[in-house]
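[job 4471] stage=fold_predict status=RUNNING
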Amino acid sequence: MILEVIVARPSDIEFINKTNADRIELAVMEFDGLTPSYDFIKHATEQINKPVNVIVRDWHENFVYNEEQFLKILEHIEFIKTTKANGIVFGSLTTENDISEEQLKRVVESKGHLELTFHKAFDYVNDFVKSYELLKKYKVTNVLTTAGHKFEDGVDILNKLVSLNGPKVLIGGGINKTNYIEAFKISKNIHIGSFARIDNKILNDIDVIKTNNIKKELLKND
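[job 4471] inference complete, writing structure tokens
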């Protein structure tokens, strides 16, 4: 099982190291997650005592990248490969809301030893099963999704994706105290952001006690 928690700023590091979280997504929490500065990436990957996956996303308007924007993503990946990061978090779509296979292939060819999580761009695809099979073809490690914009509406699709035995289905986005156990019963891989923080607010500090209690409850249901 995996409990992944978002780390968004340097002050989070002290708190996350006291938790029993299994893995970190490193992302600046503006516009649902943007690439942190190189200094922060280097510092975080050296100081956090858990595997760190770094988001590579500079533009918030959508998940469609022109060549200039995409080359910047590849530049980020080259830097991240020089750090102690465990993986990258990436996703891109075509203007028709299909996964951009051409860009995915180039990322896979560029990422080297890094694991690859396809991020919440997946929630916007036209065909979840077809898109998942494409990620499976390219041996993507994880896919971060709620199979749409709300977990409760995506339960049937999430169960279907898990049954296809491809990338690990990392359920995240709107996960909270009312649904995290249900999500865990579908997939043993859970991603949380504001739920790990004081008063469930992403700008507040990570709540160490609450995060450890979440992990404890997941273990009880494993």
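[job 4471] summary: Strands lie at 2-7, 23-26, 52-55, 87-90, 115-118, 142-145, 168-172, 189-192.
[job 4471] exit 0
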